[in-house]
Amino acid sequence: EAQVTQNPRYLITVTGKKLTVTCSQNMNHEYMSWYRQDPGLGLRQIYYSMNVEVTDKGDVPEGYKVSRKEKRNFPLILESPSPNQTSLYFCASSFLNDRETQYFGPGTRLLVL
Amino acid sequence: AQKVTQAQTEISVVEKEDVTLDCVYETRDTTYYLFWYKQPPSGELVFLIRRNSFDEQNEISGRYSWNFQKSTSSFNFTITASQVVDSAVYFCALSEARGNQGGKLIFGQGTELSVKP
After folding, report:
1. B33 touching A, CB under 8 A?
2. Cα A83 to Cα A13: distance, rounded to the nearest angstrom
3. What SS3 class is residue B1?
4. What are A57-113's pLDDT values in tens digits?
5. Could you say which of A41, A58, A88 has the minimum Cβ distance to residue B43?
6. Quick one: average pLDDT of A24-35?
7. Chain B neighbors of A56, CB-CB under 8 A
């Protein structure tokens, strides 16, 4: 089954404790991205990647890092989480020549205390 | 700059009523895409529709219909004979066709629809 998976789905952590949210897709998509969803703000793009080893900032990259060492994986790294990073995070992927058709992961709910 | 505005933060209706969710967008691109997504209480995003800027034809899918009007930069979504299962947050989104930012979805703030029995 074609899908985008995210782990963990729920996470409670404390300020400053590094964490990684994984994203994996099995559709051989080149394009992958991360969004965060906050009340009243909708979803905003954090980072995106057009292919292996090619990543770039989205609209709200501060406090996040990403890597794209393999085509299928696009982890989101919070090196020193803060309470303002409490949010619902979505990973998405698509083919580079069909970025209008994006597949979203199920979301990861993060609470930073 | 691109922008999507969903002015209705919350809407509450009684089952079987019709309801329209408004979406107004801003873009300088001549080629772009518009989307609607549904987010039920479980939290996942469910794709509903995609429209490109050259296709102004309205679309109907069962109880759902969409009205795209470039003249007013609007892409409104109507649910006919609403049901309790329609209760969700609905997002309108816009994306550029290509370029470095191609693929980035600009989302509206979302409209929370509550359908009461």
Report:
1. yes
2. 9
3. coil
4. 999 999 999 999 999 999 999 999 999 999 999 999 999 888 888 999 999 999 999
5. A88
6. 97
7. 100
